[in-house]
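pinging the channel bc i need a second pair of eyes. not urgent but kinda urgent?? the chain im working w is below, pasted from the shared doc
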Amino acid sequence: MRKVLLAVLLGISSQIVAADDRPNVVFMLSDDQNWNGTSVAMHPDVSFSKSRVIDTPSLEKLAGQGMRFSAAYAPASVCSPTRCSLQLGMSPAQTGWTKAAPTMTASDGYKLVPPRITKNLDSRTTTIAEILREAGYATAHYGKWHLNGGGPGQHGYDDDDGNNGNEYAYRFKDPNPADIFGMARRTTAFMEKSKRGGKPFFIQMSWHALHAPENALKKTTAKYEAKGGFRNGKGLGIAAISEDLDTGVGMVMEAVDRLGLSDNTYIIYMSDNGGGGGKRDTLNGGKGSVWEGGIRSPLIIRGPGVAANSWCHTRVVGFDFFPTFCEWAKVSTRKLPVNLEGGSIASLLANDGRGVVKRPRDELVFHFPHYQSQDGPHSALILGDLKLMKFYEDDRLALFDLGRDIQERNDLASDRPRDVEKLHGLLNNYLAAVGAKLPVANPQYDPSKAPPRVQRGGGGNKPRGKKPRDPRRKRPRPAQ
C-alpha cells in the first residue's frame, strides 16, 4: 500500500515539476503605436525606424536583453480586429471582424457598401487563454478588452479589468495616466500570487496608451514641451504618454527580475496597429490602411534562450503567438483549433532569429474592406518580399518589393504582370477559402453627391507618371 501511495505522490510531484518548467508569458500590447514610435530602432539599416524625439529607455533595455523583429506585423490596421485575432489565432479576414469603428451603409453615399461587423467575441470560439488555462496556467488580462462578449472573464481569464473599451483610458490622469501604473501593479500582484501557487502564468497587458495622451504625467509633458518641435498638442501628448508607457513597461520588467522569474519568463512587446504615416521619413500609410504604416509593428521579445541584442528579419504576424504560446506550454497539437492560421515562432527565438515560420499558407493577407482612409476598401497580400495591394473601388492592383522599397514608393505592377497575376490569384483564393466578407456595389451611389474622401491614415503612393528611383536597389538588405 505504501509503495502505491509513494508512486502516486511521485507522479503528482513530477507533474508539478513539469508544469513549473514551462515558461511564463507576459504579453504587452500597446495601442496605436507606430513602428518607429519608440527610441528603439526596428531595422538596422533604416534610419527612420526609431523616433527622433521620444525616449523609451525601458524598451531600449528590453531590446538589449532580447530580440528585435524588423518585419513584424499586427494582424490588422485597427484595434479590435487585431485583439480578436490574437485571442483566436486567425486573421481578421477569417474571423470576420475587420473594423473597430462603425461601418458605412448605403445611405452614407460611398461607391461601395462595406460588410457589416458583429462586434462580439463568440462564446463558441476557443481563445488562447482557454487553451492555456486548461493546460494549467494561471491567466490574466489587464487593460483594454474592446471585444465585448462578456469580457475577459468569460473567455478563459482568471483575473481581468472587465469588459472595457477606449473610454476607460480617459478616467485615469496624473499620477496614473491611462491606468499605466495601475496595470503594472496588478500584473506584479498576479505574478506574485502565481509564484506562490506554483503555477506558470500567462498575462496579457493590453495597455490603453497611447490613448488619452492629454492625461500624460505633467512632469513628462513638461519635458517634451521644453524639447519643442511639435506641430500640435496631440503630438506632444503622444510623445509624453509614450514615455509614461515605457515607465510602466520598466515597472513590469523590474518586478519579473525582483521575483526571480527572469530565467523562465518571456516578455513580449508589440502594438495593435500603426498610428500614422505617409510622411517622407516614415512608412507609408497609417491606421485604417494596409500600407506598411498601418500594419507593421514594433516587436521585441526577451526570454529563456533568446540571445541578447539579437535581430530577426523573418516576417512574423500577431496571430503567430497563439501556436507559439501553446508550444511553450506543451499543449498537444491535437487540442489546437483546426482553423489556426499562425505558425510558432519559438524556433526563431531559439536560433538567433534564423529560420522560417511554418503556417498553413505561405502568404500573409491583410483585409480591410472598409472606408477609414483615403484608399477606401482594400486588401494586401505579402509573399516573400513582394506585396500586392488591391483597391476595390476601381479594382486597381499595385505591387511593391519590400526588400528594396520599404516605403512602398515604387509600384512595379506594370513591370511585373506575372507576379501581379500570381499574387492576385492567391489573394482571391485565400479570401474565398476563409469566407472573407467583401464590399459590394452601392445601389444608391451618386457620383455627383459622393462624400469627401477620408484623409486619415491612407497611403500617398498612387501611381502617376515616372516611377521614383529606388535609392537602395543596388544594396542587399535583410528582409524588410
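so Residues 23-104+118-350 form a domain with the Alkaline Phosphatase, subunit A fold (CATH 3.40.720.10). and The two ends are 64 Å apart (CA to CA). — does that match what u expected or am i reading it wrong
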